[in-house]
Design brief:
single chain, alpha/beta, Dipeptide-binding Protein, domain 3, 9 helices
C-alpha cells in the first residue's frame, strides 16, 4: 500500500505575498474550515489520508511512516467556529471574502474541489471555480500566475531534501507561492551544507514543522491511498511509498528488486 508521502499530494495553493493570504489568520481559517475525516470518507470511501508532504517522510526526522492528522498542528483540526472567528478578526464578514479557484479539467474529479468549496463557503468564504484545460493549469502553476487559489498536487522528480526545501526558499525558481521567510531560508541553507544524514533529517523535520505551523503557500488536503499487487516471486520491489513519482520515472526501484524462482510455478520459469 502506498501512503503517498511525497509527490502528488493535493493542496490548496496561494501566494502568501498577496491579500488575503498574507494574513496567517486567513490561512489558518481555511485549514480549519475543512472536515478532513468526513472528506476522506465522502470522496475516497475512507481510502485516503491528509497528504502532508512539505518534505518526504524519510527526510522528516527519519520517520518510517507519513504524518497523520494526530501529528498535525491545531489548524488541521476541523473547527468551523474558530475559522469564522479568525476571519472576523482579520476583518472579513461572512460572504465578503470572494476568491477564485483554478482547477484542472484533467485528472481531477469535480466532486473533490466542489466539496472543499462548500466547506469554505460554510465559514463565509465564497469560491468561484475556474475550470481550465491541463495545459493552461500547468502554465499558470509553473509561472505562479493563478488568481487566488490553486487546487492541485505537488510533483517532483527529486529525492533529496534540497529538491523539496527549495520550494520554500526566497527567490528560488520553484517557489511559486511567494514564500520569503528568514527562518525557513536559514534552515534551507543549513541542510544544503550539512553532510551528516541524520542531522539533515532533523533539519528537514524543522522545515516541515515550521511550514505546517505557518501554512506557507499550501493548505494540505486528503490524498488517496494506492495499492500495488505483485506476483509472489517478485521480491523487494518498492513502489510509490517512498517517492511517489521520482522512483518510477527513474526506475531506480528496480536496482534492488529480484525474482525468487523457487516461488514460480514450473510453467512460469524462463
Amino acid at each position: 500500500m502506498n501512503e503517498q508521502n511525497s509527490g502528488s499530494n493535493f493542496y490548496l495553493g496561494f501566494n502568501v505575498k498577496e491579500k488575503p493570504f498574507d494574513d496567517i489568520r486567513v490561512r489558518r481559517a481555511m485549514a480549519m474550515a475543512i472536515d478532513y475525516k468526513a472528506s476522506i470518507k465522502a470522496l475516497f470511501g475512507g481510502n485516503a489520508r491528509i497528504g502532508f508532504s512539505t518534505v518526504p517522510t524519510d527526510w522528516d526526522g527519519g520517520r518510517q511512516f507519513p504524518r497523520t492528522e494526530k501529528d498535525a498542528p491545531e489548524w488541521y483540526k476541523y473547527n468551523p467556529e474558530e475559522a469564522k472567528r479568525l476571519l472576523k478578526e482579520a476583518g472579513y464578514a461572512p460572504g465578503s471574502l470572494k476568491l477564485k479557484m483554478l482547477i484542472s479539467s484533467t485528472g481531477t474529479m469535480p466532486s473533490e474541489p466542489a466539496l472543499y468549496m462548500e466547506y469554505l463557503k460554510a465559514v463565509g468564504i465564497e469560491i468561484e471555480a475556474q475550470l481550465v484545460d491541463a495545459t493552461t493549469w500547468r502554465t499558470k502553476y509553473n509561472t505562479g500566475t493563478w488568481d487566488d487559489l490553486l487546487y492541485g498536487a505537488t510533483i517532483t522528480g527529486g529525492s533529496d531534501l534540497n529538491d523539496w526545501a527549495t520550494v520554500l526558499e526566497t527567490g528560488a525558481p520553484s517557489n511559486i507561492f511567494g514564500v520569503s521567510d528568514p527562518k525557513l531560508d536559514e534552515l534551507i541553507r543549513a541542510q544544503r551544507v550539512e553532510l551528516d544524514r541524520t542531522k539533515r533529517e532533523q533539519i528537514g523535520k524543522q522545515i516541515a514543522d515550521y511550514d505546517y505551523e505557518t501554512l506557507n503557500g499550501r493548505v494540505w488536503l486528503p490524498s488517496p491511498l494506492f495499492y500495488h499487487f505483485f506476483r509472489p516471486w517478485v521480491q523487494s520491489l518498492v513502489g510509490h511509498d517512498v517517492y511517489f513519482w521520482a522512483t518510477y520515472w527513474g526506475l531506480n526501484v528496480l536496482e534492488d528488486a529480484w525474482l525468487d524462482r523457487t516461488r514460480m510455478p514450473a510453467g512460469v520459469q524462463r
